[in-house]
Structure formats: structure tokens, C-alpha cells
Amino acid sequence: MSGKRTEQHQCYMDFAPLILYFVVMVMRQAKCHSVCSSETVTEVKSLISKLARQELYDCRLYTPTLNDYEQNCSKSILTCFKKEATVLIGENKFLSKRIIDMLHSLSKQLQDKGQTCPACEVYKEEQARTFLDTLLKTLQKMNAKNNCSF
User: Fold this and answer.
1) I need a surface site. Which of 1, 78, 88, 150 has the fewest CB within 10 A?
2) Quick one: pLDDT at residue 9?
3) What is the structure's pLDDT at 5?
4) Could you tell me if 44 and 139 are in contact, meaning their C-beta atoms sit under 8 angstroms apart?
């Protein structure tokens, strides 16, 4: 009986590193997936391209700065970007609404670390191209900060 118990214990010990490896890999994927999005970056680049072809530069949108992201207001600024993207897409029917869902999903997974983050209406109004460029830089910074490789 003692020999059987030793064999069983050895079997558990043989599989422990493998199980630990899988747990670490799953946790790493979950962490990176929650705040990284190569698809969102690609979608913003597509919007920039479409906007350039349509030459719609009269639309002005509240535009958070990269500095605001760096001051730990990530959820608030992504929520602002989402609201303003809704305005942009509402004024330009040829643009895809997909970015709104992506920004909503990302913002739900973030937390503001700053005690008070400015309301969207506090930010300077910028042209649509500047708005999208700033959004792109913010998403790229977020991905770099979280060591997400694509």
C-alpha cells in the first residue's frame, strides 16, 4: 500500500511543473488581452485613412491628450474617445461603428488611478484627424505599457 501511495505522489510531482506552466500562460494571456488591442489600433488606422480620402476636416471633437493617459485617467479618456467617436461616426455615415464597441470594451476593463479625472468637455476641441491621431498614439502607448506584442 505504501508503494502505491509513493507512485501516486511521484505522478503528481511529475505533472506539477506542467500544470504550473499552463496556469502561468493562461494568466499572462488574460492580463494582456484585457488591456491590449491590436484590432483597435488597426481600426483607428483605417478610420484615419478613410477620413483622409473624404477630406472631412470641419468636424471638431473633444480630444484628451496623451498626457492625461499618463496621469492615470485611462478609463475616463477612453470613455471620452468613445463618446466623441460616436459623434464623428454620426456625422460621417461612411465610417464603421466598430470602433465604438472596441473602445467601450477596452474602457470597461480599465480603472482610473487618478483621484479626479477631467470631464470630456474640458478637453480642447480638435479636428477629426488630430482626434484620431491622438487616439492612435494613446492606444499604442497603452499596448507598449502593458508589454503586448502583436
Assistant:
1) 1
2) 62
3) 62
4) yes
Residue scoring higher pLDDT (104 or 70): 104
Which single residue is written with the C-alpha cell 509513493? 6
Across the chain, what does the average pLDDT equal?
79
What does the DSSP assignment read for 65-93? -HHHHHTT-HHHHHHHHHHHHHHHHHH-T
Cell numbers representing residue 116 in the block: 479626479
- Give me the amino acid identity at 41: V
pLDDT in the model for residue 10: 67
φ, ψ of residue 99 in degrees (nearest 5): -60, -35
Please tell me which residue, 65 or 17, carries the higher pLDDT value. 65
Asked whether the beta carbons of 88 and 61 are under 8 A apart, the reply is: yes
* Residues 100 and 82 sit within 8 Å (Cβ to Cβ): yes
DSSP state string for 92-133: -TTS-THHHHHHHHHHHT----SS----GGGSPEEEHHHHHH
